[in-house]
Amino acid sequence: MKTINIPKDSYRQSVLQFAADKYKTEPEYLWASAPGYAVLRHSDNKKWYAIIMNVPKEKLGLSGKEYIDILDIKIDPVLAGSLQMKKGFMPAYHMHKGNWITVLLDGSVDKEMIYFLLEMSFDLTASKKAQK
User: Fold this and answer.
1) pLDDT grade for 4, boundaries at 50, 70 and 90
2) What is the per-residue pLDDT across 31-88, written as a single tens digit (0 to 9) for each?
3) Dihedral angle at the C-alpha atoms of 90, 34, 106, 52, nearest 10 degrees?
4) Cα Rg of the chain, angstroms
C-alpha cells in the first residue's frame, strides 16, 4: 500500500469533517495509485462536488517538491476568475478549468471561505430535485 503524504498544516481533516457533519458525506478513495485522493459526492445523483488531492507543489507551478493538499470544487465561472487572482486559489487541477477551481489547503485561504465555497459547489452539483 502506498503512503499518503499529508502536510501537518493541512485543512484536509477539517474539510472532510465539515462535509460529514453538513452533508453526511464520507470520502471515497477511488484510486489505489492515488490513496490521498478523496472524492466527495452527492448520495442521490452520485455527482462529485469536491475532490481533495495531495500533489507535489511543482505540479501546480509552485516551488518545492513536497506535497500539498488541495481541494477542487465546482464554482460559478464568473467568481472563478476573481478568486484566482487571490492567494491560495488557482485554476483547477485535473478538472474543467472554467467551472472548477483549486483551493490550497495549506492555510493560505481561511477555513470559513473554504466552507462557503464547498457549500456553493454542493449546491451547483445537486440534482434538480434537491435544488427545489
Assistant:
1) low
2) 999 999 999 999 999 999 999 999 999 999 899 889 999 999 999 888 888 888 899 9
3) 70
4) 14
For residue 112, what are the contacts with CB-CB under 8 A and spacing of at least 6? none
Contact criterion met (CB below 8 Å) for 73 and 95: no
pLDDT of residue 1: 43
Q: What angle do CA 25, 101, 103 make, to 5 degrees?
A: 70
Distance CA 31, CA 128 (A): 29
C-alpha cell at 76: 460559478
CB 16 within 8 A of CB 52: yes
- C-alpha torsion sign, points 88, 91, 92, 98: positive
Residue the block writes with cell 478513495: 29
**Which residue, 92, 52, 88, is CA-closest to 70?**
52
At 27, is the secondary structure helix, strand, or coil? coil
Conformation bin of residue 74: beta by default, left when phi > 0, alpha when psi is -120 to 50: beta
Provide the residue type at 97 as one letter. Answer: K
